[in-house]
Amino acid sequence: MHIHILGICGTFMGGLAVLARGAGHTVTGCDAGVYPPMSTQLEAQGIRLIEGYDAEQLNGLNADLFVIGNVVSRGNPLMEAILDRGLPYVSGPQWLGEHVLHGKWVLAVAGTHGKTTTSSMLTWLLDDAGLNPGFLIGGVPLNFGVSARLTDSSFFVIEADEYDTAFFDKRSKFVHYRPKTAVLNNLEFDHADIFPDLAAIETQFHHLIRTVPGIGRIVTNGREDALERVLTRGCWSEVERFGVQGGWETLPAEDGVPVDERFAVYHNSERVGVVEWQVQGEHNRMNALAAIAAARHVGVPPAQAAKSLANFRNVKRRMEVRGSVDGVTVYDDFAHHPTAIETTVAGLRARVGHENTRILAVLEPRSNTMKLGVMKAQLPASLADADLVFGYGAPAGRDALGWNLGEALAPLGGKAQAFDNLDALVKAVGHAARPGDQILVMSNGGFGGVHQKLLDALSARGTS
């Protein structure tokens, strides 16, 4: 079958394209932004890409099916031509559910935060146990180097997003996945562009719960009131909670050893394993509990899973060190929701301490929710543990903010500055940084290549 994917260069749709190609289909695709690294990854798979959505690309294409990404809306010229001609089309999540996930033991990881990291951990635990799982993850697990792969294994791990499916299907993507093992990491208000409030998102999570079979298992964060409300609305599967006493929990492995380096895993108050790793933060220990619990459902012993985490290499753009110059380290992190920003800063602070080590937070609030200004009031508190804050708001274009970033950061006082010029921000950070500082860059986009610009600026000051 020849499938043509609209919106192919997004992380999800690009991963879907790789899976379709691996399943033996002829795959082509188009997008408004066909550029590396996604374009080169796809072309290396033998996938032909077309720039833009011109309806003329239908001529001679002879596709059997059009798979539609949720970036495509009515008015898109190619989509309008597909509709006018009555050509067959389907959403990406529906195609995935029917053609890749059907018949497999699906392990789906849902939640506002930590989906990518927990999915990556879970995939690694299954792989290290010899189960060779397929996967589709909204990031690049460093243990695998790709965001998706198709195998002949019965198991498939998928990052389960609550964002809507397509312009013609406003259900959350994850209702198409039919998991036997469902991880519910946490639940907060997000995606203000499509959800009016938290209750609306809870309804979508309730719909996910309705798709888990009676023989399935739900692994849920026991600290989250919103998730408890979801379960109260109806649950027909076994439930295991993590993060609470008597469920899955972490405790210090031994006195005097930081829990960021070594911690014990308990289940039903029984010690079942010890984790030694290089990943920081309580949020990642919670992610680890969820992954260990989910892996146990498919037969991986907790002690073995805990041991496997020693070789977990995290995910690209999750506290990824981009370089170090003159004693200043630059990190790249995907954090863009105030809760994620706060936990990321707290994790780095726990690692480096307070004495003689400063954290310089460099933030670009560019998610749809952040651009709407719904959470701007939460930003100062989320950045309170940073020593200096440098915020960037694009002055124009689709990433421009609809609110004043400087005003939003004003409660932080003199330690915060806002910029609408990237070069000016880089200059200010370069001027402020001193040996020993940790520069933490947070954005869910490319941020104009600011990471390398900062490293270049730090290098230049040493030669000037």
From TrEMBL:
A GO molecular function assigned to this protein is: ATP binding
Q: Which Pfam families match?
A: Mur_ligase, Mur_ligase_C, Mur_ligase_M
Q: Which residues bind ATP?
A: 111-117
Question: What is the name of the protein in this document?
Answer: UDP-N-acetylmuramate--L-alanyl-gamma-D-glutamyl-meso-2,6-diaminoheptandioate ligase
Instruction: Give UniProt keywords alphabetically.
Output: ATP-binding, Cell cycle, Cell division, Cell shape, Cell wall biogenesis/degradation, Ligase, Magnesium, Nucleotide-binding, Peptidoglycan synthesis
State the reactions this protein catalyses: UDP-N-acetyl-alpha-D-muramate + L-alanyl-gamma-D-glutamyl-meso-2,6-diaminopimelate + ATP = UDP-N-acetyl-alpha-D-muramoyl-L-alanyl-gamma-D-glutamyl-meso-2,6-diaminopimelate + ADP + phosphate + H(+)
Gene3D superfamilies this protein is in?
A: Mur ligase, C-terminal domain, Mur-like, catalytic domain, NAD(P)-binding Rossmann-like Domain
Q: Which SUPFAM superfamilies match?
A: MurCD N-terminal domain (SSF51984), MurD-like peptide ligases, catalytic domain (SSF53623), MurD-like peptide ligases, peptide-binding domain (SSF53244)
Keyword Ligase belongs to the record:
yes
